[in-house]
Write a structure and sequence with these properties.
The protein is α+β, with helices and mostly antiparallel strands. The protein is built from seven helices and ten strands. The strands form three sheets. A four-stranded mixed sheet has the order 2-1-4-3, with helices on one face. Strands 5-8-7 form a three-stranded mixed sheet. It comes from Aphanomyces stellatus.
């Protein structure tokens, strides 16, 4: 059984690995990966047998090996034939230069895109962890703190209005008895928000609603928002959550529609497809 002293370039901290001489270099890679608990495949490691001057484990060498820039360091401490082929037996490299006490036997180079597991890597891992935790909690809070208006019961709506200091004024109007306006003929094979369907029901509303509202003067306009799922989303500092609402058509004052979608909003219309067979 051999005890090999290894140092990861960029860390400079020696560690030992016990292995049989008749095992191959790839087995040594696996033991190094396991020892350091690396999260990448062992095959990504590059191993070099330190031949030049039988590199000793002293403070100057370790200080140098702790620096970044693995290419320069491996050239300094090893020669061209020191790269250890993963498929070759360890004894091929150790027979001519058997391990000596208090010397570095193997230099380990980890993939460039993966930082060494020294202080810097711990800080980077901490930053990554903080970032992921913040995203997790943000996503969780957003999912928990969104309420849909259509799902609220009357008590929840009352409490929201009370919290925001709002009053609801219900207008009681006499609905004219006019049977001359036909119902909208839904296209059965299309869903409510399908483009052809939308074009037709917007034309229907223009013909039968807007001609009445704008009989004397163009005051109102219709906006098709069937595919805009966020137009009614509301964030108010007085509430500990966001409000979510959907609709199909908005009735707005014509002068305000070019400012924002909500400017001059008068009526929110949600259409429900209902097809009755004769």
């Amino acid at each position: 059984m051999l005890t090999l002293v290894c140092v990861v370039v960029g860390e400079g901290r020696p560690f030992s690995v016990k292995i049989e001489a008749d095992e191959i270099v790839d087995d040594l890679k696996k033991k190094i990966k396991e020892k350091n608990m690396y999260q990448f495949p062992a095959k990504e490691l590059e191993l070099y047998h330190t031949l030049k001057g039988y590199t000793e484990v002293d403070e100057d060498v370790l200080r140098e090996l702790k620096q970044q820039g693995s290419n320069d360091l491996t050239v300094k401490y090893v020669n061209d034939i020191a790269w250890m082929n993963p498929m070759k037996l360890l004894e091929r490299y150790l027979d001519a230069n058997p391990p000596v006490e208090e010397q570095i036997h193997v230099l380990v180079v980890i993939p460039r895109e993966i930082p060494p597991t020294g202080k810097r890597s711990i800080e980077e891992l901490g930053e990554i962890l903080d970032e992921r935790l913040n995203k997790f909690f943000k996503d969780r809070d957003e999912k928990r703190s969104v309420y849909s208006l259509s799902d609220m019961n009357s008590e929840k709506k009352r409490r929201i209005l009370q919290k925001m200091g709002l009053d609801v004024n219900v207008l009681e109007l006499e609905e004219p008895c006019n049977t001359s306006i036909p119902g909208y003929p839904w296209i059965v094979e299309f869903p409510e928000n399908q483009e052809v369907q939308r074009v037709q029901y917007m034309a229907y509303l223009e013909a039968h609603l807007m001609t009445q509202l704008n009989a004397n003067k163009v005051v109102f306009s219709l906006l098709d928002i069937a595919n805009d799922k966020t137009v009614l989303d509301t964030v108010d500092p007085r509430l500990p959550f966001r409000l979510n609402g959907t609709a199909d058509v908005l009735l707005v004052k014509s002068k305000g529609k070019n400012l924002t979608t909500i400017a001059g909003l008068c009526i929110v219309i949600e259409l429900k497809k209902k097809v009755e067979k004769n």
